[in-house]
Design brief:
Oligomer: single chain
Structural class: alpha+beta
Strand order of the largest sheet: 1-2
Largest sheet: 2 strands, antiparallel
């Protein structure tokens, strides 16, 4: 599948606005704060950066969503 821009991804997955996708991209990699390391959300595998252009592989994004759904269902079952 062809990588999509953030706008195109937002159109394909209307539950996610452009700003929310940009936030997911920002939080994709682990980063450092004054209080210590902040883990990433794991979306980095779907992100392609070419210069300043940010593209997202829609299939990898879909797989990432499915994994998050599976993780949350396990958490609910354990509660």
């Amino acid at each position: 599948m062809q990588p999509l821009t953030i706008r195109q991804l937002s159109e394909r997955f209307p539950a996610f606005s452009e700003p929310s996708i940009r936030n997911l991209v920002f939080c994709a990699k682990p980063r450092q704060s004054t209080k210590g390391p902040i883990p990433g959300n794991g979306l980095e595998r779907a992100i392609l950066r070419v210069g300043r252009k940010v593209l997202i592989d829609a299939e990898q994004f879909q797989a990432w969503l499915n994994e998050r759904r599976a993780d949350s269902s396990h958490e609910r079952a354990a509660a």
